[in-house]
Amino acid sequence: MHPILTNRVRTALYFASWIPVTALLTAVVTRGGQMPLTEAAVMLVPMCVLYAFVCQASWYLCQTLPLREGQTVRLLGTHATAAVVSSAAWVGIGFLWAFLAGPSFQFDGIVDRYLAQLPILFFSGVLLFLLAVAFNYLLITFEVGQRAEQKALEMQVLAREAELKALRAQIDPHFLFNSLNSINALIMADPAAARRMCVLLADFLRGCLKLGSAERISLGEEIQLAEHYLGIEKVRLGARLAVESEIDEECRNCGVPPLILQPLIENAITHGIAPMLEGGVIRIEARHHGALMKIVVENPFEKNGTKHGAGVGINNVKMRLANLFNGEARLDVDETGGRFRIELQLPCDES
Question: Which terminal residue of the chain, N or C, has fewer Cβ atoms less than 10 Å from its own Cβ?
Answer without folding.
Answer: N
